Amino acid sequence: MAITEFMEIITGNDTADKGTFNWGVTTKQSYMPLDNTEFFKENINLVDWLRQFVQTDEERHEEYVRGFLGKMLFSGDEALKSCTVLSGGEKMRCMFSRMMLQKANILVLDEPTNHLDLESITTLNNTLENFKGTVLLSSHDHEMLQTVCNRIIELTPKGIIDRYMTYDEYLEDKKVKELREQYYA
After folding, report:
1. Residue 169 lies in a domain
2. Is the dihedral of CA 92, 137, 98, 76 positive or negative?
3. Which domain, by its residues, includes 37?
4. How far apart (Å, rounded) are the C-alpha atoms in residues 24 and 110?
5. What are 11-59's pLDDT values in tens digits?
6. Considering the entire predicted model, what is its pTM?
7. Based on the structure, what is the number of domains in the chain?
């Protein structure tokens, strides 16, 4: 829960007890929260749901919105399905459509593989590997951490461990192991 709270704070969805955090002026963030329930309470279809997040009148056109839903495999009548009847995986796919629509250069993802099937996880992994911006990711998916991350930041009770390396290198690094023992003692 500490990681989720950290992500809520840096995305502006919660406030820190002390200290400040500011994004750079040229950054645009998109956040995939651990719990997306609040996004799907309204009884509207997926086209209208995604329209809520458009930035210009030009983007409100149904064809434009359907294009983003189509990228997440919602085609034809599926795009007219009510938000209130979606499975966990469908909700995640809608959230990814929303993130693509936002055109962010920083993605903040809290356990993005939850509720996804293997094919969707593989597609997400490949997409994140090719993403040109920054990905701030929390995950229990070892393969995703290994293939997507080139910097590991571990928040511990006694400090932060910050290393530029793959996840497997991080797990095997002698200095990191010593720091982890010290910070978790």
Report:
1. no
2. negative
3. 2-149
4. 21
5. 999 999 999 889 999 999 999 999 999 999 999 999 999 999 998 888 9
6. 0.89
7. 1
